[in-house]
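Just curious: can you write a single protein's sequence together with how it folds?
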Amino acid sequence: MTFSMTRDHVEISLWALVLLSAASAAADAGRSQPHIVLIVADDLGWNDVSWHNPLAVTPHLEELAKGGVILEQSYVQPICTPTRSALLTGRYPFTLGRQHSVLKDNEPTGLTLNATLLPQSLKKVGYSTHAVGKWHLGFCSWDYTPTKRGFDSFYGYYNGAEDYFTHHRGYVADSDWPDKPLPWEKSKRDYLDLRNNTEPDATKEGIYSAHLFASYVEDLLASRSAKTPMFLYLPFQSCHAPLMVPEKYMKPYRYIHDLDRRTYLGMVTAMDEAVGRVVAALKATGHYDNSVIVFTTDNGGPTKHGANNWPLRGYKTTLWEGGTRGAAFIHSPLLPNPGTISHKMIHVTDWYQTLVGLAGGVAPAITDGFDQWASLTGSAPSPRTQLIYNLDDTDKLKAGIRVGDMKLLINPGNAGWIPPPEIDAPIPKTPSRPATMAETTHPKKYIQSKADKKSLYNKEDKSESSNHAKRHRFSQDRKQLPMNHELTENESTWLEEPFEDLQTDQNKSLISEGFADKNDLSLVQFFRKHMEIQLYNIKDDPDERIDLAKTESATVQELLQTLLKEMPRYVVADIKPGDPKAHPKHWNNIWSPGWC
């Protein structure tokens, strides 16, 4: 049998091959751009997840962590706004003016508009971008809000914290809320902070925020095509104060006598369930197989609000490991090394370069991060050999730097080692764990139960969690191990407010006092008298118990010199007095942009 082909047939066949090849290349390119899911827990402590503490009930997070790469040397900033700034810019906060404090609700500023944020870089390479949850990077002007900064959609709240059920927040100048919450009859002075894109959403009162955000993500995933690459930024409200959770999530911890701790762990479990629902939705909608999921806390746990960082030293707001080494993992079907534990150094600034690189994009030239993908997949050492914990000269110089295994701290304050309250609790032989919401209801639509509607706003609610939130009672029986058998009364490096995380005076930066040119600073000039300097070997002494500063003077000098080299990039902290125009009474009783 013979077969003949004309020139026209040949040309048509060649064009078909070209088109087929192009289609195949496009399909491969689509697959090479994974869906990126970046989950941030708020105020989650090192000892508040089940792979560090088996008494914490976090089965969904643990399944993801143990099926991915657990990151045991993942560093964040000691408080909220600085970490979120570093995460979305890839830059150290001291280069942005965001190193000192959180953004207050009436502060007329935000994360510098000169920075290109992570969603903006991802949009350049074809990603759809979505933010669900907490913003806390400024909202005095619309220009600071998520949908003006690279996100196609936003569902969540602008401020740092609020009621988990009403989604309202008091104006700080009106009261000492939530430390001394307003009586019910005056609670009308609390104001809505929940947005669907730019529109206020007053229809979700009574729905716990972890449930609310999980439901929104389920709807989002069901409404879109998995063929288009997606960036989902999911910063949960959990587990920030005020301590509030539906009663059922506290039941696995009924043996813990400390009410703060019992409530807080219930909040962790509720968040874990929400993460389980999100992952189930990724699978049900065809997104999961080509996804990369990153999970991290934003800072160490605030021990006075029920969190725990044992056995690490310190807590939220401090530069000790307990304030800056975060519970974290990466999970993906694309990982060649699932089920591993990494002790390689990684910093929150690294996620920008890493994720943009995975997406096939290019990060801005000005960045402090590294592309960690080869390190995360086990094919290379970490490109990061040092990190700056923070550099803040706003009122009293506080700084931290790590080079290799050596960590140097300047004026770190005295913070000890705080064991969890459950350490002495009569633990049941088999801690109870009821089936979670994700296990029992997904993929069916989650329907809120009557028990879940119990909240602070409900006068009839007699639940332990609700009453605890109303009283904002803090237990007095927590134990703290002494530091060298003696701990000073002033534990905190910075003054932490119950709700706002950090209160600051507005003194001028000491750097500007007497030194016209930061480049001319010398060690003697810069590191003035009365500086407390401490040095630790983090590999040999991860709990920071043995100060080596007096015996390792050469290392101290070397690290000080390295820190000094960063000073030309230092930007004075962007702290502005509160503006009364921010008061929601001027904006239809809703927290709103438009006043700066």
User: Anything to note?
Assistant: The first strand starts at residue 35 and ends at 41.
